[in-house]
Amino acid sequence: MPEKVSDREGTNYNKGDEQIEVPGYGKRHIQAVLLFILIAVSTALRSSMTITILAMTESTSPYDHKIYNWDKQIHGFIMSSTFWGDVIVQGIAGHIANKYGSKNVLTVCIFITGLLMMSTPWFAELAGWKGVCLCTSLQGSCQGFITPCLQMLIGRWAPVNERTRFAMFIYSGMYGALIITPPIAAYICNSFLGWPWSYYIFGSQSFVGGLLWIYFGATSPSHHKTISIKERTFIEKDLDQTNDVILKTPWKSIFKSIPFFALVVTQCGCIWGFTVIYTETPTYFKLALGMDLEKSGLMTSLAYLMALFMSYATSFTTDYLLSRKYLSLTSVRKLCNTIGSWCPAVCMLLVTYVPIEYTSLSVGILIIMVGLDAVNSCGFLINSVDLAPNFAGVLVGVASIFSSLVSLLAPIATGLFVKDPHDKSQWRYVYVLSAGMYFFGNLIYIIFGSGETQPWNKPKAEKLDDEPELSKELMQMESKK
């Protein structure tokens, strides 16, 4: 029998033979706000780099700030270096977070990332572009832990029937940061403060977010000191959070899985396209189309505002299609992935053929392209949970190893193709290649992808006898009160 679940907080719903009371606003909502802030801060650090590096190499300010004579190939190496660390840590991030606590790991990474960000001008002065690459690659290593930590925290704090809204709210912090960061970074770089202060200001945000997380965050409901017994009971029973079962990871089945192979391929294709949009498009509009830095930043913000709108619109639309059973889960995933891959691919091809004098048309195409890419939020981005809810973190980690390599290679390839960033014809090769990656990745997903839970999601489990029961812990908490 399907479980009867209420969408209204403060009511009851049945889980199996047990009735669970749904508490209203509580500590889980505070955790969501904190994680929204942390992912926004993390995204702002990387997003500001695309504008600040451009200001370091091109004279865009009326004030006398130091300019470095770095060509487009070096620029590509610097932008790709932010992804070098991701490749290294993806395989171990989840294990370390699970061993030492996701709160502790996330705290350390946020503080170190902020310190490195604020140190970038000093690295540039000391060792030039190589120093900047070293600094940004270390930042990438720290930020490589953030997504696995977020996934673990969402899994431990978000009740089943609140999970979609919970996760969507948290990850909307990424788009929020992408909307406001470019114009702020451009304004700082063009002001009397200059580009060094872009690093100082955005880096300092990490310390603010980190302090909030230290004081109010927790790894799980059982680690939170002030959570009510009612809310903790609700979350732990709803999620069956009993740490008395260890599931053995079915590595052989994972690597033999055709749907997982399709997921990895389409993720690599989409990440290549998104990386080019994210890291290279501001440069294309600034140098190839002659748009000034502040307008380029504003244009980028409008594009991500469209992405934020499309991600929410898509989530509600897909929920409607599934609830009414108009489409199967597999069909919904493939439909969203196709819209989020092939439509941006067409836009990439169009934007390079628009004459320079029609800059507004190019901007419009870019905004549509970024918005359509966000439809992937209901495609491959959550497909790992469909395939294996028990091992979604493992699947994300394995797939991210390959997609991180792609993120690293995309800016380098741009530097190889674009010798003169002012020559629009050279940029055409970059966008044609990216469109091809989008197209091929989604084609494989259409043929071999799936939204069905795989048989290897439930391997044999091992029972542990030394774990305390929830009821005993709650009785101890009650007696202390």
For this structure, the CATH topology of the largest domain is Growth Hormone, Chain: A
Please state the CA-atom Rg, rounded to the nearest Å: 23 Å
- Which residues form runs of ≥5 with pLDDT under 50? 1-10, 462-475
Report the span from N to C terminus: 39 Å
How many distinct helices? Answer: 17
Task: Give the second-level CATH assignment, the architecture of the largest domain.
Answer: Up-down Bundle
**The CATH homologous superfamily of the largest domain:** MFS general substrate transporter like domains
Give the quaternary arrangement of the chains: single chain
Strand-pairing-aware structural class: mainly alpha
Major beta sheet summary: 2 strands, antiparallel
Helix content: over 70%
Shape from CA axes?
globular
Number of domains: 2
Q: Give, in order, the helices and strands.
A: EEHHHHHHHEHHHHHHHHHEH
Strand order of the largest sheet: 1-2
Q: What's the count of strands?
A: 4
Q: In percent, how much strand structure appears in the residues?
A: under 5%
What is the average per-residue confidence, as pLDDT, rounded to a whole number? 80
